Each structure stands twice: as C-alpha cells, then as structure tokens.
Amino acid sequence: VRVYYEDTDFTGVVYHASYVRFFERGRTDGLRVAGIGHAELLNGPDPCAFTVTRLVIDFETAARIDDALTVCTLFEDVRGPRLIIRQRIMRGETTVARADVQAACIRPDGRARRPPPALASHLRPYLRASS
Description:
four-stranded antiparallel beta sheet; elongated; about 35% strand; alpha+beta
C-alpha cells in the first residue's frame, strides 16, 4: 500500500482511520491469494459475504506520506461463522500497526452463517490452526 496525500492529516502523517482501509485491502488480497473473490462469494450458488464484528488496532509508529507499506495478513482460525485474523502493517522491517480482527460470514440478508464448504476448503491451507 502506498500512502497518498488523501491518507494523511495536515502534517503528512497517516490519519488513524486510513489504517482501517489498509487492513481491509490486506484481508481482501489475502482472500484473493487463497482463490476467493468477494464478487464470486456473493454471486455464487451458496452466496455469502463478510462483515467485521471486532477490530482492535495497536498503533506502534507513524506512517507518512509516500511511504510504501506492506500489509501482512494471517488467517488464524474459523470458529462457526467467525474468521479470526491477525494483521500487521510494516514499513520495511518496522511494524507500524497491528490489528486483531474478527469477521463474520453472513448471508445476503445479513444473518450469520458458517462459511460454505467451498470457501472453507479454500481457506483451510492458510489457517494457522491447521498447520
């Protein structure tokens, strides 16, 4: 993730809410690596989507305009409808921020559900709990 002017406050430091977008991009890209796209989940034969139910962010140092950041995403576990996810935003070897995330798998009507079997099988090799 490259930090742009729109991501910063008037001092050139990344505004705290921008990190939420960066973490979201990391989760979306992590799902893509696992072979899962949001559009295909929603439009597939057993439709589902995700909603964040818990997000805890620890800010360790400031990121600034023009920084190139890496979002590291680790899918820890699936517990019922919940995905447990750990994330870090790095600038080189320096941790900028950490997040603990819980996302619930939901039906199109918003009710919680277990991930469909196809989604679970795509995620299984990436889950820390399965290794």
